[in-house]
Amino acid sequence: MVSYKNSLMKTKHFLGGLALGLLFVLTSCGSVKKTVYFQDIDQGIVQDVNMKYEVRIHQDDMLSIVVNSTNPELAVPFNAPVVSYQVGGNPYGQATVLGFLVDGNGFIDYPIFGRIRVEGMTRNELTDYLKERIIDGGYINDPIVNVKFLNFKVSVIGEVGRPGTFDITGDRITLLEALSMAGDLTIYGKRDRVAVIREEDGVRKMKYLDLRSSEVFESPYYYLKQNDIVYVEPNKRKSQQSEINQNNSVGTWISIASLLTSMAVLIWK
Predict the structure, then answer these.
(1) Distance (Å, rounded) from C-alpha 244 to C-alpha 120?
(2) DSSP tally for the chain: helices H, then strands E
(3) Among 75, 143, 61, 67, which Cα is nearest to 108's?
(4) Please, is 228 exposed, middle or buried when counting C-beta atoms within 10 Å of its C-beta (0-12, 13-18, 19+)?
(5) E strands, 41-90, where?
(6) CA distances from 249 to 14, 163, 258 (A)
(7) Does domain 153-237 have CATH number 3.30.230.10?
(8) Cα–Cα distance between 221 and 176 in angstroms, integer?
(9) What does DSSP say about strands 229-234 and 153-158: parallel, antiparallel, or unpaired?
C-alpha cells in the first residue's frame, strides 16, 4: 500500500514537472519570436547601405553658417554675431553663435545677399551655393563655409528604457541609433509596432515599422529627420498590468490569493 502511494506521488511530481517544463518551452519559444530583432536575416548575409542619404533643410530649422578665410576680416560680414551672457553669476559668461532661422516660406535672411531660399537643400548644397556667390561677387577668393543644424533633435517615447528628446550633433541618425540612445525597447515594447511620426510639407505622417524584419532597413523612415518622434507601443501584458494597477484593491488581491491557493491544493492533493 505504501509502495503504491509512493508511486502515485512520484507520478504526480513527474507529471507536474513535465507540465511546467512544456509550459516553459512553449513560453520561451513564443517570447523569442516576439522579442528578437531581424529574424529573417541569415548569418553572413551582405546588404547594401544607403550612403547617399542626407538630411534636407526644412522650415523652422536653425542653421549655423560660418565663413572663414585666410583674411579673417573679409569673412566678418558673412557671419552671425556672437552673443555673450552670464549663467549663475559666472563673471566670464558664455558665448553662443546666433543661427539663421528658416522661415515658413523656406527662406533665411543672410548678410549681404538678403533673402535666400534654402528649403530642400542639403548642407553640402547650401555650402557650395554660398561659396559660389561669395567668390563670384568678388568678396573673398578663398572662402571656407561650414553649415550645421543647430536644432536637429529626435524624441523617443513609449516602452523604452530612457524616453526623452535627444540632440543630434551630426545630420545622419538611424532609427536603431535613436532607440539605443533611449536605452532600447523594454520587454513590454512591441517589436513589430514601432512608429515614426514625421511632419513635413505641412503634413503629419505616421509609419509603423517591424524591427523583427530586415525590411526596416529599406524603409524611408529608417533614417530619421529633424523633429521626428519615435513611439514604441506597449504589448498586451503591459496593458493588462496597467489595468490591474488601476483597479488595485484589497478585495482584488484577496481573490487572486484565494484562487492560487485553491489551485495549489488541487494539484498537490
Answers:
(1) 49
(2) 6, 12
(3) 61
(4) buried
(5) 62-68, 82-85
(6) 37, 30, 14
(7) no
(8) 11
(9) parallel
Of 214, 219, 216, the residue nearest 43 (C-alpha):
214
User: Which grid coordinates are listed for 75?
Assistant: 569673412
CATH code that applies to domain 62-149: 3.30.1950.10
Segments of the chain assigned E as strands: 62-68, 82-85, 94-97, 100-101, 107-110, 114-117, 144-149, 153-158, 164-167, 189-200, 203-209, 229-234
φ, ψ for residue 148 (rounded to 5)? -135, 155
Residue 157 cell numbers, joined: 517615447
User: What count of Cα atoms within 13 Å lies in the side-chain half-sphere of residue 226?
Assistant: 22
CB contact at 8 A, 178 and 195: no
List the grid coordinates of 17: 514537472
Tens-digit pLDDT string for the chain (269 aa): 555 555 555 555 544 454 444 444 444 444 545 667 767 666 666 666 666 678 899 999 999 999 999 999 999 999 987 665 555 556 555 656 678 999 999 999 999 999 999 999 999 999 999 999 999 999 999 999 999 999 899 999 999 999 999 999 887 899 999 999 999 999 999 999 999 999 887 789 999 999 999 899 999 999 999 999 999 999 887 666 655 555 555 555 566 666 666 665 555 55
Q: Any idea where the domains of the chain sit in the sequence?
A: 62-149, 153-237
